[in-house]
Amino acid sequence: MRGKNGFTLVELLVVIAIIGVLIALLLPAVQQAREAARRMSCNNNLKNLALGFHNHHDVFGQFPAGGEHTGTGDREMWGWGAHILPFIEQNSLYDRLKVTDQFLKDTLDDTTLRPLTQTKLEIFICPSDPGGHLMDGGQMNSGTGRHFNGLSSVNNSFRVAKSNYIGVCGMFDVDHRRNNGVLFRGSEIRFADITDGTSNTFLLGERNRRCAQGAWVGNRNVTGGGPQGADYTMGRVTIPVNHTSNASHQCVEAFASEHPGGSLFAYADGSVHFISDTIDYNNAGVNGNNQSNNDAPPTFNSNNLGTYQRLGARDDGAPIDGN
């Protein structure tokens, strides 16, 4: 027998089982709702960054360079993220970093200024990406060199603040000086240079922890470090979205996100779109002159390119179907 207000053991077990089933049914829905909210926040970050680019263009008549270069020596250089700080309500940080007065290397070598490069800026962080706000070595055998090493006064483990958003340099190596995207090494691209149309051209894409993220402040040794330095602020579209291999440093030059099924991209017109990791992909038309530190114009066959490659180029002249 049981008391008037009591439960039998069987009844209690049934109740617990029902609660467990309800939790199992509701948990995926809760997780999906949370991811939807995180993805919307990520979308807004990209929109606001793209707006910063447009405002930069209004003032200077061009977009900032994907990464600076001096042409000689190995030197840490400012990236596009540093140059748009005044246009994303970070004027004070821009001035304190001395972006217009000196190289990034000089700021990093200054012990009073160095901590500023670790400033957490939410606009550069995708809420779905795990970990802290500093650059992470990633999970795809890409941890080596994911810090600003070799500086005269910085130890080899110094990490700057991360950015989950990197510039689209085009179809060729991220260190190519004459790439065909919007943001590449030493680029000075205007709206008029985007002859494919701003609504058909990538501006920014995502890079997650698995592929070692990026840095909003700039690049490591962009003039001599090759792709391993320039990929801190730029990526290329001749590696699939959400690539799972880091052979030949592919993952750290690619675009990848923690959003299931694809990645968000900001277009040059300021819009943001989700690009599926099954998007039409074909890089067979990418031909010669595509290596790092190359001054010769890269060559490609626009008739033998996938939609993903075409979206990454500003002037390939090929139509975009199913964008």
From TrEMBL:
- Which segments show compositional bias classed as Polar residues? 295-307
Domain named DUF1559: residues: 31-280
Keywords in alphabetical order = Membrane, Transmembrane, Transmembrane helix
Residues passing through the membrane, by range = 12-30
- The coiled-coil segments of this chain are none
**Which residue ranges does the record annotate as region Disordered?**
286-323
Q: Name it.
A: DUF1559 domain-containing protein
**Species of origin:** Bremerella volcania
Q: What is the lineage of its organism?
A: Bacteria, Pseudomonadati, Planctomycetota, Planctomycetia, Pirellulales
